[in-house]
């Protein structure tokens, strides 16, 4: 199978010409062989994916991250591994980049706010890193802690969320091959506004689970409290699996607006269970009441 660039070049629809943006250093990956990792849906333009963002450390407006994230200091960068593991320690970015071969994964991204995109990420399964640090049997969850520097991230000076931005996954979710540690998109390193230099991408969950600019990964016994869950527990659960049948208390989750398709007459898309990854991840939630464990 071709990579996204060549696939786009061969695509029949005239609007589907997407090219490597040529803005940042190249970072390419082999086409992933992980089941579900290569949607054939039309890829969102780089311009949309890098200018319509949620990254509250740089402001709450969708255009704020692209405007202000240039101040983010990504060099040097280390990710600390701590908690219930045999091999805690620090990885600098170069070590992480070399830890496993890069793959390209084309994932749907569904934000809890009701919009979606299709983004070609570059990275490898988080499981590759987890295996190397050897979690103890008592490690049941993984907590992700992100950069929070008030000097370089203007939003951190505001009280809109408790900083740092924290997310969490159950161990089996973190080990699932679709859970991606991402360093790039569109064949280049991540732009700052998309979570440079390293972020999480969990395609079957609402976008806020995909924490940007990771600095710490902690293995813990108890379910972590994530930032959005802390700020509004009745609205944002720990699991946050994309689910068209469980509405947000203030809006429906049955449909979504695909960014780039939003003309006056554009029809909304139906949101898919687990964002279309049910075949791959549905069994992780067998027997759970997803209306309660939202
Ligand atoms: N990570 C951090 N550190 N801060 C944030 O505000 N926003 C989340 C998630 N990761 C966020 C974050 C939300 S709500 C979404 S929808 C996605 O990032 C958006 O990712 P994108 O801008 O790359 O599309």
Give the key terms.
294 residues, alpha+beta, Sulfite Oxidase, Chain A, domain 2, 5-stranded mixed beta sheet, binds ligand MTE
Structure at a glance:
With 294 residues, the chain is an alpha+beta fold. The protein has eight helices and 13 strands.
Whole-number radius of gyration?
18 Å
User: How many helices?
Assistant: 8
Low-confidence stretches: 8-18
The tally of beta strands, per DSSP, is 13
Distance between the termini: 36 Å
CATH class: Alpha Beta
Task: Please tell me the total number of domains.
Answer: 1
Biggest sheet features: 8 strands, mixed
Corresponding CATH superfamily: Oxidoreductase, molybdopterin-binding domain
Mean pLDDT: 94
Bound compounds, please? ligand MTE
Report on this structure:
The chain is an alpha+beta fold. It has a single domain (4-285), classed as Alpha-Beta Complex (Sulfite Oxidase, Chain A, domain 2). The chain has eight helices and 13 strands. The structure holds ligand MTE. Ligand MTE is lined by residues 53-57, 109, 111, 146, 165, 194-195, 207-208, 210-213.
SSE arrangement:
Blueprint: H1 4-10, E1 30-31, H2 46-49, H3 64-68, E2 78-83, E3 89-92, H4 93-98, E4 103-110, E5 115-125, H5 126-133, E6 141-146, E7 166-170, H6 171-175, E8 180-185, E9 188-189, E10 199-201, E11 214-220, H7 227-231, E12 255-258, E13 269-270, H8 278-281
Parallel strand pairs: 1-4, 2-11, 5-12
Antiparallel strand pairs: 2-3, 4-5, 5-8, 6-7, 6-11, 8-9, 8-10, 12-13
The protein binds ligand MTE.
